[in-house]
Amino acid sequence: MRKLDTARSFWRIMRSISLSEIVKESRRSFAIAVVGHPDKRRAVLRALFPDMPDEAVHPLLRTFDSIAPEAGFPQESGSFDIVLDAGGGWVSTGVKVRLYSVIELGGWDAVVERVLDERPDLMLSLARRFPGLRPAVSERIIRETATANAQFAMLNALPGMLPLLGILIPTAVLGDLVFLSKNQALMLYRLAAAHDLPLDVSARAQDLAPLLGSAFGWRALAREMVGFVPGGVGLVARGAVAYAGTYALGEAMRRFYAFGSRPTKALVAEVYRQSLGQARQVASDVAKRLRSVKAPRGLLRGKDRRHGDG
Questions:
Q1: What ranges in the chain are assigned the alpha helix state H?
Q2: Of the candidates 193, 205, 186, 111, which has an alpha carbon nearest to the alpha carbon of residue 146?
């Protein structure tokens, strides 16, 4: 009966998510130019399309020797959303363009991180069209979701640990931990979109079927851990478990979408153990921020009087 309830909960969550925004984000249009010496351009194109290094087959990109008008580079502002300078593509010209230079930023990985920092609106669309960007985009999706779940799990625990703050936290934050599982499902849809996979409930549900127990088990595990560890340490433990559980599920599914190897519960458990160190650090950082929030002065005085200090 418990497995049946878990399956029903899972289906309700999967069906409750609106996919229209994810579809819209993953299909957002953009224009990209790669400038620089031909050999260096080819290196960037191989990074974007690891299996198709020939720049002649990339309709989404335009290539130029430089941003100079004599190289044919458009001089109108806004001609391209992103301009990648593979090396030697910058020249003094009147065109206003935001260049992401492989040399100046210290390598291709740094360029990718800067582009994703400055254009998060294009993240899913870039990953869907450029296979070489999928690992970095997937990592961001997973870490952002894991961090959000850690924060939620810790806020959800605060009223029981710090009763004074109960009236200061919005009621919405105190909802059932099903929120964590809904975030996980949303993460999986975004990972599927980044890998250019169909965004329908039945297809994605089949991906997750072997992991139903694991996906929902993190909630029970979090309650158990927090129940055994009192006070602020329990707060960190709760956040760490939520982070590691979400990260493990996301990483397992990323590997499945990228390489086709269906994840097992053993794999999820192993990734979970590996991510616990970072999970504890993230949860500790969140806890520090929460503890730095001071209650209103009058409320603090009231607390002092209750403890006989006022």
A1: 2-16, 20-26, 38-48, 102-105, 108-118, 123-129, 134-161, 178-194, 201-208, 212-228, 231-259, 265-291, 297-306
A2: 186
Sequence length of the chain is: 310
By the 8 A CB rule, do 125 and 28 touch? yes
pLDDT values of the chain reduced to their tens digit, one per residue, 310 residues: 444 455 566 667 767 777 889 999 999 999 999 999 999 999 999 999 988 756 556 788 899 999 999 999 998 888 899 999 999 888 887 788 889 999 999 999 999 999 999 999 999 999 999 999 999 999 999 999 999 988 888 877 665 544 444 443 343 333 445 677 788 888 989 999 999 998 887 777 777 665 555 544 545 554 544 444 444 457 788 888 888 888 988 998 999 999 988 777 778 888 888 888 899 999 898 888 877 764 444 433 333 333 333 3
Distance CA 85, CA 43 (A): 11
Regarding pTM above 0.85, the answer is no
* DSSP conformation class of 296: P
Handedness of CA 302, 303, 308, 310 (dihedral sign): negative
Q: What three-state secondary structure class fits 32?
A: strand
Looking only at the bridges linking them, the beta strands covering 82-87 and 32-36 are parallel
